[in-house]
Amino acid sequence: MDRVRFHRIDALERRAASRDGEARRLLDARLAELMRAYAGDLKRAARKNTAADDAGGSVVGGLIDYLAQQTAARDSAFAMGEAAVFPQLAALEDFRAIWSQIRSESQLRQSLRQAPGDAGPLNSGRLVHRSLTLMRELSPGYLQQFLAYVDALTWIERMSGDGVMELDDALRTGSVAKRGRDKPRKRRGE
């Protein structure tokens, strides 16, 4: 019923077994007192549970019945080919929005930190920096969507670099063999 209290009684019993004399007598007396109180609480809890069962079922029994009904309804909807509809938590949606905002701000700070200082007007890094800055000023919502899209593309690129989505070995060896058979190109001036 009460694990912490039970473990305390158990530890006190082990300690009493290792003592002798007056210390053992005091520990035994305290142990007997704790065990009587624990036994009394167990009896009261048992009476309370039987009274609840007699009154129409326990709270836990009602919860088990409810979960069984929900599971049966979900399984029947799935068997019929319908997607089970689960309620969305409002707190979860708020959390997603906050996380998206924090993530986009973090990515934006990181990209702005990497802006080259001495780059020309057509430098790709500088152009990306400029476009992100303008996007942040004009449409922060679109910036969050854009950064989520870029994040997904980066994730896919990392997956392909780790060997998850690599090409077949046969295709790779075939393309390498073709290059090896090609005649070397002549450079200008040779």
Automatic annotation (TrEMBL):
Name-wise, this protein is: DUF2894 domain-containing protein
Q: Which organism is it from?
A: Lysobacter gummosus
